[in-house]
Amino acid sequence: MSDGDSSGQRAYQATKDQILSGAVRGGQLLSEVEVAAALGVSRTPVHEAFLRLAAEDLLELLPRRGAVVVPVPPREATDLLEMRLALESSAVRRLCRTSDTLEALFAELTDLISAQREGAAAGDEHRFAAADDAFHHRIVEAAGNAIGQRFYGSLRDRQRRMMASVVRSDTARAARLIDEHGRLADAIQRRDLAEFEMLLLAHLQTTYGVVL
């Protein structure tokens, strides 16, 4: 990788991380000059990074001004959560039918819940959100549906951005999320698909304030 490619990738990843983590919010203007100065690179790789992020619908380019962070479209949350509900429910359906390793999965999910609890206690929003993402992703991964895993993985950037917004806006929500994750894990351990689906629907709706 050339120095230019390396600088462009660094500018892309750093800017994207700021957007997905909520460090910069929808409607906020980003300056190529300021980003370049902060990263210690020229404007060219930053411009290229902005172009990539615009293609991902995360930035809207403004000629001679930089770019503005695109807010999460109101409909996107509903669309995303409908897909998560379908994929996670399908994964647990397969796990309940075929898996002989639910005890091991339950132990992994319990560890991730502990990581969430530790993140919340430390006031570490990033650690909390990462453990939340890992909890749900592990359920889909454990089911072994390769197509489902790839599709679910394609949702992770948008999901990360939504979770960052939730944690930032409602710190009291963390304790409820942890409790809900515990009940989801218990339903999986008991192979209770109906209970899992009911709990997951309520979990997604109350977390993100949407009706599915």
Automatic annotation (TrEMBL):
Listed GO MF terms: DNA binding; DNA-binding transcription factor activity
Domain of life: Bacteria
Entry keyword annotation includes Transcription: yes
Keywords: DNA-binding, Transcription, Transcription regulation
Domain HTH gntR-type: from-to ranges: 5-72
Pfam families: FCD (PF07729), GntR (PF00392)
PROSITE patterns with a match to the protein in the record: HTH_GNTR
InterPro entries tied to this protein: GntR_C (IPR011711), TF_FadR/GntR_C (IPR008920), Tscrpt_reg_HTH_GntR (IPR000524), WH-like_DNA-bd_sf (IPR036388), WH_DNA-bd_sf (IPR036390)
The name this protein goes by in its record: GntR family transcriptional regulator
